[in-house]
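Dear U.,

For the methods section draft, I wanted the exact inputs and outputs in one place so we can describe them consistently. I've listed the two proteins in the order they'll appear in the manuscript figures. Please don't edit the token lines directly; just add comments below if something needs changing.

First protein:
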Amino acid sequence: MKKLAIFVEGKTEQIFVKKLLTEIAGKLHIFIEIKSRKNSNSAKVIMKDSVTSVTKFYVLLYNSCNDETVVSDIRELHNSLSIEGYERIIGLRDVYPIPIAEKSKLQRGLNYSLPKGSIPINIVLAVMEIEAWFLAEYNHFLKIDTILTPDKIQELFHFNPQTDDMEARLKPSDDIKNIYNYVGKGYDKSEKQLNRLAANLDYEFIYIKLANSVPSLGEFIGYIDRFMIS
């Protein structure tokens, strides 16, 4: 059984990554364990699949609940993950609120602070926020309300999620909120709303199309692919 650990900064990433993993793995018998540091200095298990004789992939999804602690949590748990047989570690956090001009500096700093060892560790920076990935998956807006075509979004908000670069949006979460609010749907990042968003995303489109057109998303999916096929 192959073991992967993914560290994320918050509930949005936790819910999306769990759904993405399930969709990518398909029938490959994936096991997911979710730990969260919410309201606690130590992570607590909040969900755990059952391991069976046919389980092929074991994924620890660790919610650090803060962008600043993703790398420090990786450093803290690196040795124990190595002992437990994990083969790859991925960290996922937003660039925001750091300006895009400082992305390369941020990446270098994070990479420099990573522990050195036998497990490959990769930090992926969602530009500017993971919501840019959701904007780029423009098909899901039609599931929220059929009025929300790319052309209508452009008319209302002066950008087109189908043709424009969503990684160039300064605050993608505000864009999502504005679009949803227009049709009377909220986006306050409650668990219910995040689950609704995750359920409406087209994961085949994300995996086949967007991974090639949204660099940070493609990088993240690429690391997952390498783990599963290596």
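Second protein (the one for the lower panel):
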Amino acid sequence: MKTYPIMLDVRGRMCVVIGAGEVGMRKVQGLLAAGARVRLVDEQPVDPACLELIRPDASADASPPGAPAGVEIIQAAYSKEQLAGALLVFSCTDDRAVNARVAQDARSTGAMVNAADQPEDCDFFAPAVINDGDVVVAIGTGGSAPGMAAFLRRRLTEGLPPQIGAFAAELTHLRDEVRKSCPDNALRMSTMKTLAGERGYDVFVAQGQAGLRELLRELLRRKD
């Protein structure tokens, strides 16, 4: 299946997870790490040990007692009303009929849905992900072969350049400086292209932040 790759900013947005099993809790953890607000629904009490596992990654607003920040927990059977305000819905139950009903309800409210192991009930697929700071590499197979995506993630992780997350973080700061100090659009674009490319990366790895900033000064002197 052909899919359209996209990186979503879910900070402060409501995302609903139906099912608090292993798959559902992984979704909760990833959503919290991205700054989303999460509503977690399950008929059974959520295992306190699972809540402790996701607590360090919580980053959203206040939550009910006993839950990590950013998580609203509803202990009840699934109902459409639980999807109110959702941007994304993840149905992670082991009941295919429930997952299909969640998908239908989510679409009727305008939310996009992912139903575990039911591609026909998915508007999007959660890729295998490699993270290093703000650098995210996502691998998808159109929902047809999650095992292959996991295999590719292991292979690609080995080839990810060292310190690439720290390099990206430094580029974020430098980009703001370049915008303020360089009104010449062409020079600004060429400077950032060099800083963010192989030359900039090699300088950062060899000389750190100071070396990258010296390269920036060298590149901006071209305007004089």
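Candidate sentences for the figure legend, describing the second protein: Residues 198-220 form the longest helix (23 residues). The chain has three domains: 14-126, 127-160, 164-223.

Thanks,
Y.
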